[in-house]
Amino acid sequence: MFKRLAFCALASALAGPVFAAPALADTMTMWVRASGANAAAHLVDLWNSTHPDKIELTTIPDNEMVTKLATGVQAGEVPDLVSFDLIYMPDFMKAGFLVDLTADLKANPNYASVAQAYKDIATYEGKLYGAGFTPDVSILVWNKDLFKKAGLDPEKPPRTISEIHEDAKKIRALGAEIYGFYFSGACPGCNIFTTSPMMVAAGSKILPANGADDALTGDGVRQVLETFKEMWSEGLVPKSAQADNGANFTAMFKTGKIGIQGTGGFLLSELKHDVPDLNFGVTFLPGVQEGQVSSFVGGDVVAIPVGSKHVPLAKQFIAWELTDEAQLDGLAKNNILPSRPALADNKYFAADPRVVVTAKALGVGYVPWVYHFADMVNSDSSPWINMLQRAIFDGDVDGAIKEGREKMKAIAAE
Amino acid sequence: MAPALVFVAVFVLAPLGQLVAMSLTDRSLLGGGKFVGFENYLRIWRDSGFWRALLFTGKYTLVLTPILMGLGFALALLTVDNTPLKRITRTIVFLPVVIGLSSSSLLWFWLLDEQVGLFNKLLVDLHLIREPIVWFVTADLAFWAVVISITWKVVGFGMVLFVSGIQSINPDILEAAVMDGAGYWSRVRLIILPLSRRVLLLTTLVSAIGSILAFDQFYIMTSGGPRGQTFTAVYWIYQNSFVSFRLGYGAALSIVLTLIILIFSTTQIAIAARTAET
Fold first, then answer.
1. To bridge A338 with a disulfide, which of A169, A342, A343, B189 should be the other Cys (CB 3.0-4.6 Å)?
2. Which of A242, A372, A381 sits opposite B49 (nearest CB)?
């Protein structure tokens, strides 16, 4: 009898915390690459303040994310959620690093209005593995004061690359230190972001998905390169552009001495903060003919690594980050673009139409679905940057395209 | 002895063995990896990028090492006495050595910037150039930009080694030479230089191996450009391993570079030993 009483007492003591107390809240871990950390923190803070389950955010240096996630997955040491550069999505999906989210995302009514580029990049063999998280997108900015001084209509941005060229000539005539156009000539990433959409807008395809696929197709590539080459040889672009590996990608336009430049949406808040008096406009990156527009959709996607210890909860977070609440109060309120272009017209962006244009650029943007993106584009020895430099600075446009095409196809065939 | 052997086995031999094993696979940073024999090594023969990087690394080493040696030795001669002014001078010249290489590269990257760089401004103010130089626009200019920055960064290290070498020379020998009527340059040439041979060898080895393994300064200042003309051998290994995800190939490149350094160091030590005997 005593034994039975003692057992019951022990059993109730052990079971007490399990059955009597309310369920304990969980804490999820999340890795975010440094470039997206600021934006991710806004969303995570909002989640943490409105949910019993919390997220601990860890920032990973940009160029360590691939190594860290790859070794983490192989060692079974992964976070519950991960936010990384969307361009690595094909490699990660193929490597089997990510949890299949197809059923959850297809059942989510908000997912339908996510920018198409995010859906494309997160699809592998018909399945979905991630969602847009903290977007960025490329746009064209122009200095309205310089336009006015050059006798151009400050409210009429260039609608084609030829118009960029013509406007740049007039702006260059303003003075020795005033330049019509700027691009970072030694920065592969900057140019895939801002120059490739002009080619895509003109109907070209840039990167091959595999060895049998075509690269650098259509006349858009040649026409854009020809225009850039002419602008360079006519001195409409500062000489320093040739050596700029991206260090001056955002700094040059801030000086107020550049008429037109392709850049990223992230520059808007920087410009407003750093040079509040700079009078600039925002438009879509144009193609060869009027009406042709495009952009490069960048930023981060969010996914669940295989080995996550809180998969159901992590899925809840992904579903939540696509809601109006998260997109507007977590992102738009903090000057960050929502990944659903339909939310571009919102109360937070209403005061500045330039932000609305930027948010809408997500809807017309593209992102290349390729393996070996770093090899083909981002690497400092990539065929993409070699093609640009040979065409623009050496003037050999056709030779550059031919060489770029062959090298890109060779990489895609690996 | 035994703890040292364990240390070497765990921290040197085991990783080296793993590296060799990895170099025989097609392992990717994203996982996988099957045995491919010596395919990676055969690929190195065909990899013009690697040979170009190796040639560039050789040029960098051959140019930089004599500069560091000559300047380090000259500075040591100038500051070898322990007067307060010379001690302060030594400290100032040595200061950049304790700065991280990445930090100093970043510092020089902006110092050499054609828009806001103070180095260009100095040259313009001194009327040495008419307009700011775009330093990283050609491979030659970029090369010299890095050489200038690294000389500033590490020349103090050689200087301190030479100072300690010169100070360890028995003063009686130098005094005897003075008594015999030897002038300053004779003493430098016939006594100081030969008796500093060990330090000279050590400094050459350290400078040369440091140059062969150069990475940070080029990664930060030139990004391998323009047109991939300033990739060093280590930078090429990094590109293959972590940008292109080819870990197996990167491992094979590392093994080849290790062998090259081994041959280079052994030859250099052997030559120095033979010179010492004669």
1. A343
2. A381
